[in-house]
Amino acid sequence: MVDEEGNDNKAQDKCALCGKPLAKAQVREVEGKEENITIVDEIIDGSHYLFDTKDCATIFKKFGGVYGSNFYQDICEIS
Fold first, then answer.
1. CA triplet 40, 45, 50: central angle to 5 degrees?
2. Cα 58 to the chain's mean position, in Å?
3. What is the dihedral of CA 72, 76, 78, 79, to 10 degrees?
4. Exposed/middle/buried for 56, CB within 10 Å: 0-12, 13-18, 19+?
5. pLDDT (tens digit per residue) in 3-53
């Protein structure tokens, strides 16, 4: 998918907040069994962000509330 700014969110290979690789986040082992995990895709301020957990998405949104909407653009420039 391409967001309004022309960014391809499929190119994002790690969580927007914690930086864990998304490929590794899709499967985890629980009690000896592999369990598939859904990658969280959020649209924030018109841009798509991918997260390995819902908690990361929630914290990312809270950081934006504390630091302002420029936080989202600044974090993308860093990664």
1. 20
2. 10
3. 140
4. buried
5. 444 444 456 889 999 988 887 656 666 677 776 778 899 998 888 899 989
Q: Give the pairing type, strands 27-30 and 33-36.
A: antiparallel
Give the sign of the dihedral formed by CA 59, CA 61, CA 77, CA 5.
positive
Q: Which of 41, 40, 44 is nearest to 65 (CA)?
A: 44
Q: Quick one: tokens of 70?
A: 């420029």
How far is 33 from 58, CA to CA, in rounded Å? 27
What DSSP line would sit under 2-70, residue for residue? B-TT--BGGG--B-TTT--BHHHHTEEEETTEEEE-PPEEEEETTEEEEESSHHHHHHHHHHHHHH-TH
Tokens for 34, please give them: 């592999």
